[in-house]
Amino acid sequence: MLSNKTALVTGASRGIGKAIAIELAKNGVNVIVNYNRDEKSAIKVVEQIKSLGRKCIAIKADVSDFDDVANMFSIVNERFGKLDILVNNAGITMDRTLRKMSQEEWGRVIEVNLNSIYNVTKNALPLLEKNSRVINISSIVGLYGNFGQTNYAASKAGIIGFTKSLAKELGRQGITVNAIAPGFIESEMTNRIPFIRKKIVEWLIPLKRTGLPEEVAYAAAFLASDSASYITGQVLSVNGGLTI
Ligand code: NAP
Question: Does pLDDT of 244 surpass 80?
Fold first, then answer.
């Protein structure tokens, strides 16, 4: 159990972020649910977590906007005074081959997926206690690349470099910094992928199925736990064995 710990999960209104927020709450953690647009869903997550007996609030902030994120952390400081677990999960896709990709599509994905990691982690640092945990959600695409996702792959590979470097900077304080690289996980993000492409990917996955958000959440809860105290600077793949 992680009783009396406080976590902030970005992009926790649905999908993988929501599953991580709930799994941490089941493990005794009080949770701050960050979202950008979907207030209704964020409030439902808050209610679900409160029903587990944990403290929980939702805070609206666009993680790509440094000032918005700074405001979010002043609320966190006021309400909780510290942070033990930070999960950088918020992310988007804007898929297109490089030949057709606009500067805006390149820039927005980098802003939301990668600049956000600077914005959020930088503002979180003063609140992170000794032995706290930073968990960054990368992707299988950051490791192997993917057709039509140069922007997304660059952002997710960038997260891995950030993770390995920050692990070296924060080790002295006993703070661990790790990344999770999910494979193909059922969510709104992957719902947009055409049926036939999904079937092909499923066939390529050794476990012959796509993953569930909860299966990523179990990995996050492990990395947040005392059992992971000697693991830092690592990338944990949760992908059913998929390697291309
Ligand atoms: P999702 O269902 O689309 O959820 C994305 C979440 O991010 C939502 O809660 C959304 O909140 C939030 N978000 C988006 N832009 C934001 C912003 N600017 N500021 C704050 N929050 C923002 O996606 P998902 O599949 O759960 O993905 C979660 C993470 O896992 C992402 O980083 C994604 O790249 C990564 N991942 C997913 C898969 C997969 O197969 N699904 C695989 C590998 C990695 P609002 O709607 O309220 O804005």
Answer: no
8 Å CB contact between 52 and 24: no
Query: Alpha carbon of 198 to those of 95, 201, 206, 214: distances in Å?
Result: 16, 5, 14, 19
CA distance 215 to 221: 10
Residue nearest to atom 28 of ligand 1 (CA): 16
Q: Name the residue at shortest CA distance from atom 10 of ligand 1.
A: 11
Could you tell me the distance, in angstroms and rounded to a whole number, from the CA of residue 90 to the centre of ligand 1? 4
Tokens of 152: 């997304």
Whether 182 is in the pocket of ligand 1, judged by its Cβ within 6 Å, is yes
Q: Is 73 in the pocket of ligand 1 (CB under 6 A)?
A: no
Do residues 88 and 115 lie in contact, with contact meaning Cβ atoms separated by under 8 Å? no
Residues involved in catalysis: 152
The pLDDT mean for the chain works out to 97
Task: Supply the pLDDT for residue 4.
Answer: 87
